[in-house]
Design brief:
The chain has five helices and eleven strands. The chain is α+β, with helices and mostly antiparallel strands and 209 residues long. The strands form three sheets. The chain has a five-stranded antiparallel sheet, sandwiched between helices.
């Protein structure tokens, strides 16, 4: 598949801890597929650590035109949020929010020390979360007879729509909803017209996200 249709997001949530000159840092990386999700996660973690000195954060959301934002949350300008966002960008991730909580230990780290501490904690959290490859796609809905489900799934698998992408529901007919890679949309439409003509698919439509 063309790499321009691929993006990376966190494989799992993570939590790491780091102590530097008696200051305790807690880094968390979470999956967030919208700005609203990212803000809720930041709010949740900040509320959990109301007694912390700082809850600094950054997020990057979206596959096509990512939206990103960061906050120093009271630390000197540019010493926390930007280093965290920098680590997200360096990892090539999107749909991620990283929050680094700091409990001040009584020893000032200085501007350079803060940048390194927040960057290192964010990097550890991102590495602990891992990354999973996703593809940009278009959602497709199909309705088909029960005895054609296996064949239709096989046909679409041959153009890049893997089995795991389908969400089936069963009633009078089988209903399949799945994501077709953008690179294969034209091929999918050709396939759909052929399958409809053969009576293998009763109805289909693209669904907006």
């Amino acid at each position: 598949m063309d790499k321009s249709y691929i993006y990376l997001e966190p494989k799992k949530d993570s939590e790491v801890k780091l102590t530097i000159k008696r200051s305790h840092f807690i880094g968390r990386a979470r999956l967030a597929r919208s700005v609203e999700d990212a803000k809720e996660i930041i709010k949740e973690i900040s509320k959990k650590h109301l007694d912390a000195t700082h809850n600094c954060w950054a997020y990057r959301v979206g596959a096509d035109m990512p939206q990103e934002h960061c906050s120093d949350a009271g630390e000197p300008s540019g010493t926390a949020g930007k280093p965290i966002l920098g680590e997200i960008e360096r990892a090539g991730l999107t749909n991620v929010v990283v929050v680094v909580t700091r409990y001040f230990g009584g020893i000032k780290l200085g501007v350079r020390g803060l940048i390194e501490a927040y960057g290192q904690t964010a990097r550890m959290a991102i590495e602990a979360a891992g990354a999973i490859q996703r593809f940009k796609g278009k959602k497709l809905f199909m309705e088909l007879p029960y005895d054609k489900e296996g064949l239709v799934r096989f046909k679409f698998k041959s153009i890049g729509a893997e089995e795991v992408d389908w969400q089936p529901s069963y009633g009078e007919n089988v209903r399949l909803c799945g994501k077709i890679p953008l690179s294969q949309v034209k091929e999918a439409e050709k396939l759909l017209m052929g399958l409809v003509g053969q009576g293998f698919i009763l109805a289909w439509k693209w669904i907006d996200d």
